[in-house]
Amino acid sequence: MDQVLCDFEGSFLVKYREKYPEEPFIPLEERNTFYIADQYAKLEPDMQDKARDIWNAEGFFLNLPEIKGGCQALTEMSQMEDVDVFICTSPLTFYKYCLQEKFKWVEDHLGPDWISRLVITKDKTMVHGDVLIDDKPRIRGVRDPPSWKQVLFTAPYNQKVDLRGRQRLNTWTDDCWRDIIEDFKKRI
C-alpha cells in the first residue's frame, strides 16, 4: 500500500521539511534504503527519532496522496476475469494511528467495499496469492519461498536494486500492469 498506492516517501519529505526546516534531509533521488529511519540515522544521531515522529503523527497515513493511477488500476484489475485483488500492507511497530488511518485511506480512496480486501500483516509471506506488487526490495518471512511472485514497484530507494528475475512496475499510468497481470494469468 505504502509507496505502491500512496506516496509515503514524498509526503514524508514534505512534512519533515515543514517540521524541521533547519535540519539536514535526504532528497528523494538520494534515498537508497527501504527504511527511511536507517538512512536518516546516518546524518545525525537524533535524526532517526525525528524521522519516526513524522510518520507516527496523527493524520500522516490518512493524508497520504495517491500515487497517480494506482486506485484506478486496482479498480480495473479487480474487474478482470479470474483476478482477485487484495491490498496487503504492513503496520508500523508504533501503530497508534497507522492501522485506523490505513483503513480510512482505503475507504476514502477506493470505497467501503475495499475494506474487506485489506490485509494488514507484519509477514506478507504468510498471505497466499499469485502476485504481490510491492516496493520493498526483499521481503522475508516465515514462508520461504512465499506462494506469490513479487513484482517490484519502483520507488526512490529501489531503482538500482538487482531484480533477481523479478519484474518491475514503474508506474500505474502506462498500463504495463495489465500486461504483467495477463502474463501471470497465463502461467497460473
From TrEMBL:
Gene Ontology MF terms: 5'-nucleotidase activity
GO cellular component annotations of the record: mitochondrion
InterPro entries: 5'(3')-deoxyribonucleotidase (IPR010708), HAD-like_sf (IPR036412), HAD_sf (IPR023214)
UniProt-listed GO biological process terms: pyrimidine deoxyribonucleotide catabolic process
Active site, renumbered: 2
Annotated protein name in UniProt: Uncharacterized protein
